[in-house]
Each structure stands twice: as C-alpha cells, then as structure tokens.
Prior knowledge:
Blueprint: H1 13-21, E1 31-34, E2 37-40, H2 46-59, E3 67-71, E4 87-91, E5 107-112, H3 116-128, E6 133-138, E7 143-151, E8 154-162, E9 166-167, E10 177-178
Parallel strand pairs: 5-6
Antiparallel strand pairs: 1-2, 3-4, 4-5, 6-7, 7-8, 9-10
Amino acid sequence: MATPNVDVRHWTREEYERLIEQGFFQPDERCELVDGVIFEMSPQSSYHATGVRFCLIALQPLFLAGFDIRCQMPLALGLDSEPEPDVAVVPGAAADYIQSHPVTAELVVEVADSSLLHDRGKARLYASSGIAEYWLLNLVDRCLEIYRAPQNGVYASHAVFRGRDLVSPLSRPKAEIAVASLIPSRWPQE
C-alpha cells in the first residue's frame, strides 16, 4: 500500500506577522514560527512559569545597562522564524523595538518540561542565527544545558550543569549563578 505524500505549508515571517495583525489567532493563543512551521505552544504549568521567573530574577541584575530582558516575546530570526523564547537578553532598550522585533540576542533561555524535545531542537535555529549562547533549563532532568560557539548552524560547545554547579553568561564571566537557584523544587524536601 502506498503512503500518501503530505505537503507542509511553510510560512515566511512576513506572512506570519500578517496573520497576527489580521487577528487570525485568538488573543490567548500562544504560537511561534520556527523554520516556516507554526507551532502551538502548550499552556504553562506553574512549575514551568516559576522556572522562567527564576531565570529572570537571576539574569536581571547582570544586564542592567544596554540590554533589554524580554520574557516570552518574539525574536525575528531570518525569513521564516519568529520564536518566543522564555527569556531573551537583547541589545538596547525596550523602546528600540517599537517598530520591529529584535533580530539577535546576547543570550536566549528556554525553560522546558513537556516541550523538552522541541526546545532542544531550537538549538539549531539559535546557532544558525548566530546567537552566541543558548541555555536550556531542563526541568525534566533538573539540569541546565548550555550551548555555545555557533558554527555552521550548530553549537560547537554543549555542557550540562546540575545542582550546586555555578554558571556564568559568556558576556558576564565574573557573574556566578547557582544552577539550583534556577530550578524550582517540586517538593519541600528538595
């Protein structure tokens, strides 16, 4: 029996933004465009939301001047991608992005529980876009995956940090963030 040939409609970022402007998506519908495919984003659990908040708390004091820390807002990456990372540290100030979304970031952080495979797959997108550093806060395995040194669409460096390990953003080498401070405890004894 022959299998059907299925074509996937790839969207450009321009088409995707037109859909948004025309009200195609419901106001509470969360979507993102990655490599021409529109993905519906899962609702956030409180565990996930707390992980995002912990990342913001840790990063905000490190990037006070000259950067805007955006939470779940679009990045315009190439012609066919507009992901909405959980945290993005972008150059400039909030007012710099009134007319268009940022096209790069100093650091991107995704917090992943049910979206782990999808978010891990975004490493290729971020590397292809020249983003120097991508952090994946892996709530499933309770660790922080750090991807660095984008080369030819992949990150040349990948390391996993846990619990008491200390990490520093590339652009803030003297800063120290305890991985444990980023990962919410599900149970009081943790």
